[in-house]
Specification:
- The protein is an alpha+beta fold and 229 residues long.
- It has two domains: 101 residues, no CATH class; 112 residues, no CATH class.
- It is built from ten helices and two strands.
- Strands 1-2 form a two-stranded antiparallel sheet.
- The longest helix has 22 residues.
- The termini are close together.
Amino acid sequence: MSELGLTRASEPFRFSTRVHLRELTGLRARNLFEFVEHLKKVPGSVIYHHTHHYLQQHQYQMPEAPNDFAYWITEILQERSLGEKIASINLCDFTSIRALREEIVTVLSNYLEKNRKKLREVNEGEEFHFVKSISFVLPTPYVVYDLREFTAVLKKITIHSIYFHTFEARLRLEKGINDFSHWVEMSLGERQLAEKIAKLDPYTNTMEGLRTKMIQLIDLRIKEIECTG
């Protein structure tokens, strides 16, 4: 136990951060059929980029369209009902890029089967260009052993670190849960706190909003421990 009754972890939490580069794949789609065919074959980093990069670009407010696929289908192809279906896919339901790809492809393929009308082809310059995200994970100097140390670092790390531990660890690395919840439960034995953090919807919060809510949950738990310690 650390001071004031806080559990000291045998395995510390090591904060990492990441930088990413965007790279054109050279693939583009002029109609929905081409779009689906490319979507089936592109690397997972392409699916990840087009469904998540908006979260980094809109740090303080949420954009109107939740992903590039939904935007292009709705606004460029003018297939509004289909665009709404893609937009309504809940990213929180998926723990791997593979599963997310399969769901998107299934929705699009079903739509194509039921709508055998001539596919609309966009004008030059309106094609969908497939881009992939290349991430580089970097260590930070922050290593913590208890909840007080954890929340102190959480208050000052960059949103890029929060993004990595929240999104990339869960979905791209297929851990199934964010790094914060995993450490809080497995290393500190704080199962209820871990579940509360895991229930925070990262897709309906900005990165700063997510930081604030996690800090509030942890600070509240620290006060509970101090009162009973």
